[in-house]
């Protein structure tokens, strides 16, 4: 009994951390890069804005379902707890490992990208890219080994600075007295086949930039009042992210016409160069670094929580449940960091990221299904929060998830084959682990 007490996570996180981890774990460099690509795909001002709103609405509907699930089962590890409860041990095991892989890839990627941005500011460090990335990883491991409160403080500070930077960029764009909004195109080009494909391709990119919106659910067990804090933070955080994304797109179009923006690989830098002159690129680089430090900190905290939950349920080594005095699942953190170190040294992310986009949609879809199942199979389970317009909002979330999954299978069949392969291999491994239990 004392051992289980010793290895419990501490209830030391509150509403401000929840909002910070949602914003910090969602808003990254994607929003600074993707507007140009999407402008090239859609070439219609209103359609572009509508796409960002549609992506945000999908996430908001998802947040509505997750708010009920996370308050009903406030356990470390998030999604897989709900899937396991609804569909049994194997479904929990598979979705838990899919979710872990999805969330353990980003820290290595962000360490490398931050090192690349630091080199833009200090070109003399060019030959030290991998060294900087590994040093960043070690620094964040040490920070999180020191305890949850320090990680929480860094999350809140960096997320606040990030929001201020983005708001300042939006204001600067609107104060610029150059090119006004492009004329609204009144043709029916939306119904061209190429544009319909472009719309779905854009949605894939947009949902990628919204990824991380359910980060608060991984920390439900450590929250001092999950019943109130989780729904509040999910809604307020998601709405704030939608507002920033839509306003930033409108602001970019205020400075540059669609035709120009469509040719841009880093839209924010091109816009900043017009507003701030030669210093524009430096300003965007600094915003990028703050965005990435905040998102890196969030993703250093998420995978250990999933691994802790998997370990507690016998789906990983027993030592994975060890929690230090500061409330950090120490073995889970170290295992995840070794995996990140390995990925930094390999440095190949394209395959892993397309794989991660797949697995996140599968896990979200299964979580929505589990809400329907648990409402039927366990109607008396305490539900401090009930999702509004149930079951229609949940069914809509499932339909959109399935449509996106079909789109991903069409655009990236290789990753789908890998997922099928992992699923086949996973069942014998699950049987071995359950026998040990």
UniProtKB/TrEMBL annotation:
Membrane topology: Multi-pass membrane protein
Subcellular localization: Membrane
Main location: membrane
Keyword terms, alphabetized: Membrane, Transmembrane, Transmembrane helix
Transmembrane segments: 12-33, 45-67, 100-122, 128-148, 160-179, 191-213, 234-256, 281-302, 330-349, 355-376, 388-410, 416-434
UniProt entry tagged with the keyword Membrane: yes
Entry-linked InterPro entries: AA/rel_permease1, AminoAcid_Transporter
A molecular-function term among this protein's GO annotations: L-amino acid transmembrane transporter activity
Protein name as catalogued: APC family permease
Species in which this protein is naturally found: Flavobacterium shii
């Amino acid at each position: 009994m004392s051992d289980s007490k010793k290895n419990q996570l501490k209830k030391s996180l509150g509403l401000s951390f929840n909002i910070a981890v949602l914003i910090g774990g969602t808003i990254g460099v994607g929003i600074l890069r993707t507007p140009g690509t999407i402008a090239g795909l859609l070439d219609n001002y209103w359609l572009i804005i509508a796409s960002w709103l549609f992506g945000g609405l999908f996430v908001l509907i998802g947040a509505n379902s997750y708010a009920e699930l996370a308050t009903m089962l406030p356990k470390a590890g998030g999604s897989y707890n709900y899937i396991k409860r609804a569909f049994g041990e194997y479904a929990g095991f598979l979705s838990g490992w899919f979710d872990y892989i999805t969330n353990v890839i980003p820290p290595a990627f962000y360490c490398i990208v931050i090192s690349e941005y630091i080199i833009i500011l200090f070109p003399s460090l060019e030959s030290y890219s991998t060294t900087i990335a590994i040093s960043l990883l070690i620094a964040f491991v040490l920070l999180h080994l020191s305890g949850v409160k320090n990680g929480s403080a860094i999350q809140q500070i960096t997320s606040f600075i990030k929001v201020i930077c983005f708001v300042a960029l939006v204001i600067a764009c609107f104060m610029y007295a150059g090119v006004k909004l492009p004329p609204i195109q009144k043709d029916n080009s939306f119904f061209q086949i190429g544009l319909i494909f472009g719309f779905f391709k854009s949605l894939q990119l947009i949902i990628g930039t919204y990824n991380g919106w359910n980060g608060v659910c991984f920390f439900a067990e450590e929250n001092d009042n999950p019943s109130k804090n989780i729904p509040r933070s999910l809604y307020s955080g998601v709405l704030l992210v939608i507002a920033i994304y839509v306003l930033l797109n409108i602001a970019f179009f205020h400075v540059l016409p669609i035709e120009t923006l469509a040719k841009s690989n880093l839209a924010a830098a091109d816009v900043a160069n017009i507003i701030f002159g030669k210093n524009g690129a430096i300003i965007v680089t600094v915003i990028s670094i703050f965005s990435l430090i905040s998102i890196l900190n969030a993703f250093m905290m998420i995978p250990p929580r999933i691994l802790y939950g998997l370990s507690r349920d016998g789906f990983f080594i027993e030592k994975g449940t060890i929690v230090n005095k500061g409330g950090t699942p120490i073995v889970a953190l170290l295992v995840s960091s070794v995996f990140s170190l390995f990925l930094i040294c390999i440095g190949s992310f394209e395959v892993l990221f397309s794989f991660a986009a797949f697995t996140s949609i599968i896990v979200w879809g299964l979580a929505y299904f589990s809400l329907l199942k648990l409402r039927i199979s366990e109607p008396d389970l305490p539900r401090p929060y009930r999702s509004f317009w149930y079951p229609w909002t949940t069914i809509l979330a499932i339909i959109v998830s399935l449509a996106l999954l079909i789109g991903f299978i069409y655009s990236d069949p290789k990753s789908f084959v890998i997922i099928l392969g992992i699923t086949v291999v996973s069942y014998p491994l699950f049987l071995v682990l359950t026998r040990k239990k």
